[in-house]
């Protein structure tokens, strides 16, 4: 199949050339290209803000290389428009026709995977700016280099925010691409599990599918969870938030957290009133880069001048973001490697892997063909016509801090950061869940003929035609429910059976979710249920599991046996119960 794709690409390329090409020569006239040190190819999506920033940054890197070394490079740019087949065609043309010695880009994994195949077959290094790259990719394509940091640490930052506010569940809304499937979903799921939380619902949105946004959001709105994590491109995120605002999902009790793909481009929309107004209260996790020092200030000034209204009149803001810096550093890494060798192919590839310098986006060095991961992220909060920088989150067991200086104080909680402005403007943190929509109720079985009525007592009220369930165990049950960080509806279901086995078996038959047996078992079963976060309906603490009559059944101990049970104590922090036998 892969060979067919390549054959198809080459055949189409022979028939037509549709990718616009831009040639940039560092420090020399275009008629003297025979004396250049090397030729660098680049693929960008010029229809996007990221692609526009990347183009300017790459051109600046080539010019700066000549200014610093007095050696000239040629940058051959082609526009892929974010389409994988176009990217593969453009890469084939750059390698076979333009004779580039290395390729930088593209930004999406769908494009990068095809370009990596083209590059590896021609022994041309490909510095992918796509995030993420699967662990197996560099083995599958030996000339592929991951030139953007992994998303793993970023997802840990998102999970740290969730943990800081005590939320246990989030809904993940993501752009339905291969990139999300191989990166954000597994990384975020693992990071949340590490802090005792989970993804309760997934909302997959097709790229640029604005027509289906209201339908998907309506489905998610019916869920109990009110904490949303959004991982998508900016062109999809903007209509998503505009639709959410119209559906009153940007109001009190809602929480919205965006990942780097949106947060690092908020600077580009601060002059667009409709866009920024629909994102009020949104939290963002963005890659951090230092904006101090003469090197960045010089780059910043020249970038703004080049990325000006004259070149991009449709853009309202000319500030460079992290994606521009990554493109600049990747192009510079290739240029530095070309200085150190006159060879291409494997020799150039090896030199690129030896790159080690402090770039604009951070430390640039590679381990196993992958860029060293970023470990510092900036937490932002959209407010008014712009956004505030609340503070930082640092990996490596550090956590949140107001600064990243040597004397910075780190904390696992965001309490030491600036005040968060939530959607709707509340001063208190949202609960993360709502009472308005209930997907199901917990069915708790109680024995109708308990021998310990002071603990569990079931009476039938003829005036209301309902059962009344009271007792000490029931009271503790209800108090434990109040400790939950989310709403848990439940019903007590009286059970008229002479044996506990029959009662417990109702769980296996899905008639009940949990049971309240004798004095302690109401707490035992429920507290374990709480710890499992309503996921494992068929497990109990203190109840042994055995196999009998060809099936598994939880064995309940009869309180009238030679076992003296002492009421366990519910631990507030962990909601655990100790069942003690004398």
TrEMBL record:
Primary localization class, coarse = membrane
Q: Which Gene3D superfamilies match?
A: 3.40.50.2300, Periplasmic binding protein-like II
Pfam families per the UniProt record, alphabetical: ANF_receptor (PF01094)
Q: Which GO terms describe its cellular component?
A: membrane
Query: Which InterPro entries does the record associate with it?
Result: ANF_lig-bd_rcpt (IPR001828), GABAb_receptor_plant_PBP1 (IPR044440), Ionotropic_Glu_rcpt (IPR015683), Peripla_BP_I (IPR028082)
Compartment(s) of residence: Membrane
Signal peptide region = 1-19
Query: Where's the Receptor ligand binding region domain?
Result: 55-384
Q: In its keyword annotation, does this UniProt entry include Metal-binding? A: no
Ordered alphabetically, the record's keywords are: Membrane, Signal, Transmembrane, Transmembrane helix
Please give the name of this protein. Receptor ligand binding region domain-containing protein
Can you name the source organism? Nyssa sinensis
């Amino acid at each position: 199949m892969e060979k067919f794709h390549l054959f198809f690409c080459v055949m189409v390329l022979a028939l037509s050339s549709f990718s616009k090409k831009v040639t940039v020569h560092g420090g020399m006239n275009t008629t003297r290209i025979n004396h250049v040190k090397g030729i660098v190819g680049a693929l960008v999506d010029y229809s996007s803000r990221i692609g526009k920033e990347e183009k300017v940054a790459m051109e600046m890197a080539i010019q700066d290389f000549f200014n610093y070394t007095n050696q000239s490079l040629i940058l051959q740019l082609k526009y892929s428009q974010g389409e994988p087949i176009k990217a593969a065609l453009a890469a084939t043309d750059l390698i076979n026709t333009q004779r580039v010695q290395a390729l930088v880009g593209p930004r999406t994994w769908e494009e990068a995977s095809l370009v990596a195949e083209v590059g590896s077959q021609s022994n041309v290094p490909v510095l992918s700016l796509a995030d993420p790259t699967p662990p197996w990719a560099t083995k599958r394509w030996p000339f592929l280099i991951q030139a953007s940091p992994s998303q793993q640490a970023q997802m840990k930052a998102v999970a740290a925010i969730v943990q800081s506010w005590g939320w246990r569940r989030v809904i993940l809304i993501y752009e339905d691409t291969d990139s999300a499937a191989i990166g954000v979903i597994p990384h975020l799921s693992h990071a949340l599990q590490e802090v005792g939380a989970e993804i309760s619902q997934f909302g997959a949105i097709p790229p640029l599918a604005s027509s289906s946004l209201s339908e998907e959001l309506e489905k998610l709105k019916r869920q109990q969870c009110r904490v949303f994590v959004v991982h998508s491109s900016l062109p999809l995120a903007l209509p998503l938030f505009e639709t959410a605002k119209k559906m009153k999902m940007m109001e009190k009790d809602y929480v919205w957290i965006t990942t780097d793909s949106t947060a690092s481009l908020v600077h580009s929309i601060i002059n667009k009133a409709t866009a920024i107004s629909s994102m009020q209260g949104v939290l963002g996790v963005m890659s951090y880069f230092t904006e101090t020092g003469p090197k960045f200030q010089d780059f910043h000034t020249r970038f703004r001048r080049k990325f000006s209204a004259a070149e991009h009149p449709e853009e309202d803001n000319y500030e460079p973001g992290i994606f521009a810096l990554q493109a600049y550093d990747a192009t510079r890494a290739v240029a530095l490697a070309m200085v150190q060798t006159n060879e291409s192919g494997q020799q150039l590839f090896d030199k690129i892997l030896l790159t080690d310098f402090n770039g604009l986006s951070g430390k640039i060095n590679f381990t196993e063909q992958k860029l060293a991961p970023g470990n510092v992220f900036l937490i932002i909060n959209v407010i008014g016509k712009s956004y505030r920088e609340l503070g930082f989150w640092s990996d490596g067991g550090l956590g949140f801090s107001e600064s990243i200086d040597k004397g910075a104080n780190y904390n696992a909680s965001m309490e030491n950061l600036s005040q968060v402005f939530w959607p709707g403007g509340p001063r208190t943190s949202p609960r993360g869940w709502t009472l308005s929509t209930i997907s199901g109720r917990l069915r708790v079985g109680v024995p109708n003929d308990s021998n310990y009525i002071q603990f569990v007592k079931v009476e039938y009220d003829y005036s209301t035609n309902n059962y009344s369930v009271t007792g000490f165990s029931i009271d503790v049950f209800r108090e434990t429910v109040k400790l939950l960080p989310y709403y848990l509806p439940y019903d007590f279901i009286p059970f008229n059976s002479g044996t506990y086995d029959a009662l417990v078996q109702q769980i296996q038959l899905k008639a009940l979710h949990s049971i309240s047996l004798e004095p302690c078992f109401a707490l035992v079963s429920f507290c374990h249920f709480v710890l499992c976060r309503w996921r494992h309906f068929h497990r109990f603490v203190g109840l042994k599991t055995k196999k009998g009559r060809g099936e598994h059944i939880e064995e309940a101990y009869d309180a009238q046996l030679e076992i003296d049970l002492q009421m366990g104590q519910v631990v507030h922090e962990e909601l655990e119960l100790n069942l003690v036998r004398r």
